[in-house]
Write a structure and sequence with these properties.
The chain is α/β, with parallel strands linked by helices. It has helices at 2-91, 115-127, 138-143, 145-153, 173-191, 214-225, 248-258, 271-286, 294-298; strands at 94-95, 104-111, 133-136, 157-158, 199-200, 229-231, 264-268, 290-292. The strands form 2 sheets. Strands 2, 3, 4, 7 and 8 form a 5-stranded parallel sheet that branches. A 3-stranded parallel sheet has the order 1-6-5, covered by helices on one side. Bound molecules: zinc ion. Zinc ion binds at residues 110-111, 161, 165, 203.
Length: 304
């Protein structure tokens, strides 16, 4: 009986041991679960914090972006204004000569010719160490590219004289633009790089015979919009010697009698003009004047 009693009372004791273990397990499980939940909670909190700080940063970047856009708009507007002013300034200027206080005289030669005469011209200029400004017609540049490559390689500069020597007063704005841009394409193609010029000379002076006329203003604005100045001259031969036989001697005398510091001399690629070139260069130097390119004249220090 006592065994039975003992047996009866014994199991509850064993059971309570198992319960403690079970309880411990449960307790540990709960603690583990709590700890796990706590770490999850902390992870969520820190993610939320990160998200908030990212949102802050995004907001900051958006603000900075807005500021930059605002500054960009300001600069863009300023730039547009300057460009307009620049075009206005250029289109209001037709250049007949440089600063009279320099001893420099720009030699400009128009149109173009076959390679014999062209190489002879370049030989003269090289022999006398003179850089000139040449205003070829695009047509000639297309035809004799190596001549113009040589000219640029030897320090001469090229100015826009239109693609086809078109008299511009009688054609549309669109045609004027295409004459100028076709010239540019011919030159770029011949030289193998993007050539930049500031100088335009109107074929036959057409459209520019009355300074300030509506026609001149129309053309000047297009030229200026293409980033160029209109370049005329103060010494030329075609009109001045129209009633005479323009021999090289007569040409030389006319240039030497009329050129002075700051002058722009207009010659053409004709046999007589080019034959006169060495005497013109020597004659100018004998008078204390220095033949040069347009760039050298227009950028010259007035006191030099
Ligand atoms: Zn011409």
């Amino acid at each position: 009986m006592s065994d039975q009693y003992y047996g009866r009372t014994k199991p509850p004791r064993k059971k309570s041991g198992a319960r403690i273990v079970l309880f411990l397990f449960l307790f540990l499980g709960l603690v583990a679960l709590g700890f796990f939940s706590f770490t999850q909670y902390m992870a969520i909190i820190s993610l939320q914090n990160n998200l908030e700080s990212l949102e802050d940063k995004l907001w900051q970047v958006e603000q900075e972006n807005k500021d930059l856009q605002y500054k960009f708009d300001e600069i863009y507007e300023e730039n547009e204004k300057l460009r307009e002013e620049n075009t206005m300034l250029r289109s209001s200027v037709v250049i007949n000569n440089g600063n009279r206080k320099t001893n420099k005289v720009a030699i400009t030669i128009d149109d173009g010719a076959g390679s014999d005469l062209m190489h002879r011209t370049l030989d003269y200029l090289k022999a006398h160490n003179v850089r000139a400004t040449l205003f070829p017609i695009g047509y000639w540049v297309e035809r004799e590219p190596e001549v113009w490559q040589r000219a640029v390689a030897e320090g001469h500069e090229l100015g826009n004289h239109t693609q086809n020597h078109t008299f511009l007063s009688s054609v549309s704005d669109e045609r004027v633009r295409s004459e100028l841009s076709e010239w540019q394409e011919s030159v770029n193609e011949a030289l193998g790089f993007e050539y930049h010029t500031y100088f335009f000379r109107p074929p036959g002076m057409d459209g520019f015979t009355s300074p300030g006329s509506t026609q001149a203003k129309r053309l000047q604005e297009i030229v200026a919009d293409k980033g160029m100045f209109t370049i005329l001259w103060d010494v030329e031969l075609v009109y001045a010697l129209r009633n005479e036989v323009a021999t090289p001697e007569r040409i030389t005398r006319h240039v030497l009698d009329n050129a002075r510091g700051g002058s722009i001399v207009l010659l053409h690629f004709t046999p007589n003009d080019i034959a006169a070139l060495p005497d013109i260069i020597n004659g100018l130097r004998a008078r204390g004047l220095e033949p040069c390119s347009l760039r050298e004249l227009l950028l010259a220090d007035p006191e030099a």
